[in-house]
Write a structure and sequence with these properties.
Shape: globular
Subcellular location: Cytoplasm
Low-confidence stretches: none
Radius of gyration: 32 Å
GO molecular function, one term: lysine-tRNA ligase activity
Largest sheet: 8 strands, mixed
Strand order of the largest sheet: 8-12-13-20-19-18-17-16
Protein name: Lysine--tRNA ligase
Keywords: Aminoacyl-tRNA synthetase, ATP-binding, Cytoplasm, Ligase, Magnesium, Metal-binding, Nucleotide-binding, Protein biosynthesis
EC number: 6.1.1.6
Strand content: 15-25%
């Protein structure tokens, strides 16, 4: 990297890096630095009756130098603690360079340091560490965006949502509470696993690359498997493989893993998302509703210090069981006034397009897709408290068992919370002949232009023909569950590294393009530093003025460059104008 591509602070830090090496100090030592305490423990376990010796390490987040003594705020993986540093104690001999030169001049905010010392309380009552030894563990050559306050106004805040998501590593360092979000996410997953394990169910792993995108209605990502010379699909669901394991004799299996759907991105959707799917033999969707209530109440308590309530925007959502249960067609009738239970596909299309004036409907939509669109438009957002929407029409549920007492409906529920779907569950279809017919119906929808219709999975049908016991299954979106349990508005807030659009880059003419004007590579960087990123930027410049501007930069950075003549600058400008 050319020095002119760096900021002023980056240049100074790299100079400090070299000075440290010149002094014989390795800025990135390889040896282990065994710590024995964290900041949170130092504060919670402090006793005035004990002189506790500690070894700590972390980032230097602030520094107050007061002559021969200084205070540093050290941030480790648990929090922050103040460190008192005295020149004569970390430099007991004649040589004071460790304090006077290294600590005061060559170390920077963001550097990792190690400290050996003892715990004490300052005159102002702050529990701190009195340093006896100090060592540099890792040099930071790029400055952190540390927030500064003046007259109650915050400066240099790292609060742009896109930057926070794109550079999560900085977000975690400088913004309070971000790490806590992901520790809570870990609690959600740990609690869920423990809950399933305690019930005797087995965690398994199924293929991420699949020959058929099955188990859901969604557009897949396609890739190519070179060794087999076939196209493969990133899985959109784990369902069909987990059911194969129920056929194989497992009592209950679950998987927490990544799914991929090549669809839109918004505050509730990320194309790569984490989903949990669970399948248990000899159960039905009524049992699964009860089980889900227990699971979510347990998770909410674990994440929220024993409370079954959590604030989401203006709403307080209660995960205290039981939850409301409401058939989907009754929900539509409740919100729109239209009873769709005995209506044909054409009649429902007319209601949607004419009576409800929905502009998103087209001729490719089958009966199930029409009902789904109507529910999504008029009902979904109305269910803030956890509500089981049940008994979906068969056209909406190609993998679900027919309802035991309601013709044309299936034993399926979706759990709605805060206006969005959180979970989807069935009494699983285990009739292989019925399943094959429903797959064929899905293929007819695909022929009509529905690119989210399911593809026939012949191997799954073969597995069903060997016999699958009565089974209930559920899928829960982990990312959305974390949003709910932590009261977050955007899915990006609970993903460490969400998918992002490509990072915008300032347009620049290439080194080769500048060379065609006769500009040497070194001088391209000088031009860019002066703000001339494109060849067209110099068209209106005066040769003498351009020479002066670039000369000032060369002088400022002490660059040993041979300065072009005014005539050469004029030649650049002339060619830029051709």
């Amino acid at each position: 990297m050319n020095i002119l591509e760096l900021s002023e602070q980056e240049i100074v830090r790299r100079q400090s890096l070299q000075e440290l090496r010149n002094m014989g100090i390795d800025p990135y030592p390889a040896a282990e630095f065994p710590t024995n305490a964290f900041s949170i423990d130092i504060k919670s376990l402090y006793s005035e009756d004990e002189k506790r010796e500690v070894v700590i390490a972390g980032r230097m987040m602030s520094r107050r130098v007061m002559g021969k003594a200084s205070f540093v705020e050290l941030q480790d993986s648990k929090g922050r603690v103040q460190v008192y540093i005295s020149r004569d104690e970390i430099c007991p001999g004649e040589d004071k360079d460790l304090y006077n030169k290294v600590f005061k001049k060559l170390l920077d905010i963001g550097d990792f340091i190690g400290v050996k010392g003892f715990v004490f309380k300052t005159q102002t009552g702050e529990i701190s560490v009195h340093a006896l030894e100090l060592i540099l563990l890792s040099k930071s050559i790029k400055p952190l965006p540390i927030v500064k306050y003046k007259d109650g106004v915050a400066y240099d805040k790292f609060d742009d949502p896109e930057m926070r998501a794109r550079q999560r590593y900085i977000d975690l360092v400088v913004n309070d509470g971000v790490k806590d979000t992901f520790l809570k996410r870990a609690t959600v997953l740990r609690t869920m696993r423990n809950f399933f394990d305690e019930h005797g169910y087995t965690e398994v792993e199924t293929p991420t690359l699949q020959s058929i995108p099955g188990g859901a209605s969604a557009r897949p990502f396609i890739t190519h498997f070179n060794a087999l010379n076939v196209d493969m699909y990133m899985r959109i669901a784990t369902e069909l493989y987990l059911k194969r394991l129920i056929v194989g004799g497992f009592e209950g299996v679950y998987e927490i893993g990544k799914n991929f759907r090549n669809e839109g991105m918004d505050k509730f959707h990320n194309p790569e998302f984490t989903c949990m799917e669970l399948y248990v033999q000899y159960k039905d969707y009524n049992w699964m509703m009860n089980f889900t209530e227990q699971l979510l109440e347990t998770i909410c308590k674990a994440v929220n210090n024993g409370s079954t309530e959590v604030q989401n925007g203006d709403s307080i959502i209660s995960f205290k069981a039981p939850f409301r249960r409401l058939p989907i067609l009754e929900a539509i009738k409740e919100q729109t006034g239209f009873d769709l239970s005995d209506k044909s596909e054409d009649e429902i299309r007319k209601i949607a397009m004419v009576d409800l004036k929905m502009e998103t409907i087209d001729e490719t939509f089958g009966k199930g897709k029409l009902i789904d669109e109507i529910f999504g438009e008029f009902c979904e957002g109305k269910f803030i408290q956890p509500t089981f929407i049940t008994d979906y029409p068969v056209e909406m549920s190609p993998l679900t068992k027919m309802h035991r007492s309601k013709a044309g409906l299936t034993e399926r529920f979706e759990l709605m919370v805060n206006g969005k779907e959180l979970a989807n569950a069935y009494s699983e279809l285990n009739d292989p002949i019925d399943q094959e017919e429903r797959f064929k119906d899905q293929m007819q929808l695909a022929d009509k232009g529905d690119d989210e219709a399911m593809v026939i999975d012949h191997d799954f049908l073969r597995a069903l023909q060997y016999g699958m016991p009565p089974t209930s299954g559920i899928g829960i979106g982990i990312d959305r569950l974390c949003m709910l349990m932590m009261g977050k508005e955007f899915i990006q807030e609970v993903l460490l590294f969400p998918q992002m659009k490509p990072e915008a880059k300032m347009p620049q003419s290439s080194i080769k393009e500048w060379a065609e004007l006769g500009v040497a590579e070194d001088w391209v960087y000088v031009l860019r530093k002066a703000g001339f990123n494109l060849i067209s930027d110099i068209k209106d410049q005066k040769a003498q003025g351009l020479q002066q501007k670039l000369g000032e930069i060369v002088k400022k950075y002490k660059l040993d460059y041979q300065k072009p003549t005014v005539e050469e600058f004029q030649a650049w400008i002339d060619k830029a104008n051709e």
